[in-house]
Amino acid sequence: MTNETIRLQPLTGSVGVSLSGIDLTTDFTEAEADALRSALYNHCVLILRDQFLSPDDHMRLAAVFGEPFLPWYYAKNSLDDYPKIAIVPNFGKAKAPAESWHTDWSHMPTPPTVSVALAHVLPETGGDTMFSNQYVAYDRLSEGMKQLIAGRRGKFVGSRPKRVQKMHGRPDTLPSTEREPVDNYHPIARVHPETGRTALYLNRPGKSMVAIEGLTEAESLPILQFLYDQSSTPDNVYRHQWRPGDVVCWDNQCAMHYGVHDYGDAERTLHRITVGGAE
Ligand SMILES: [Fe+2]
């Protein structure tokens, strides 16, 4: 297959692209791997429709973006014989781990870069995922705000289970005896290593991101709330309606995402590989 067969279709004016013309069931040529990486890193979200990938295909695709990674304490949640393919079920509305704008595992020392998710079981309706473009979120700030956050890191907080166990929602819904707190600092405005563009790196103000380095929490929170609110306005969002066979890749280095929980207790299961992170 040659490069001329690869087609890119932007999904909105700001974020997301659909790619076709690459066979995801065989080894990739260097040009194909480059096309997949370039599409994702420039558009923040990459959609590959009508794929029904085997676990081996899924692993091969994820490896294009980096080293697969699943925290040790979620080892019970992976596919048989594929310890890096996480099974992500419906945790229920009350424990929805993703129903807010967020980036994945930002409290880790090295947060993951890319996630590659497959639709395994979908509800009849609902269960969309929204994505926003954090290059755009940075670019539209005033020069004064860019100067204020330049070179500053944010304090990202969270918790992790103390022992290997099944996921049942976000770690902070576990009893306190079952988890331990974690915090790490990361730059708020980061240069993407592949595109050279600057993107905001944020998470839930006051919950997952509590301070700007050098400022008190009280001083930080209104600024973080402003940055967060302006980062995901409707003109900067792609809302993905999952279909069977969908593969959705997102880049945590330039996207935030939001899992819409409007499907009650209906079954919805994704298979997901996350790459680039370290505990
Ligand atoms: Fe997430």
Task: Characterize the structure shown.
It is a single chain. By secondary structure, the chain is α+β, with helices and mostly antiparallel strands. It has one domain: 4-Layer Sandwich (Double-stranded beta-helix). The chain has 5 helices and 17 strands. Strands 1, 2, 3, 4, 5, 6, 7, 15 and 17 form a 9-stranded mixed β-sheet that branches. Strands 14-8-16 form a 3-stranded antiparallel β-sheet. A 3-stranded antiparallel β-sheet has the order 10-9-13. A hairpin with a 6-residue loop joins strand 11 and strand 12. The longest helix is centred in the C-terminal third of the chain and has 15 residues, at 217-231. The model has no long low-confidence stretch (mean pLDDT 94). The structure holds fe (ii) ion. Fe (ii) ion (FE2) is lined by residues 98, 102, 104, 257.
CATH C-level category? Alpha Beta
Ions and ligands? fe (ii) ion
Average predicted local confidence, pLDDT: 94
Q: Report strand %.
A: 25-35%
Question: What is the β-strand count?
Answer: 17
Q: Compute the gyration radius: what is it?
A: 18 Å
Helix content: 10-25%
Number of helices: 5
Please mark out the parts with pLDDT under 50 across 5 or more consecutive residues, or reply none. none
| CATH topology annotation | Double-stranded beta-helix
Head-to-tail CA distance between termini: 38 Å
The CATH superfamily appears as Clavaminate synthase-like
Q: Structural class of the secondary elements?
A: alpha+beta
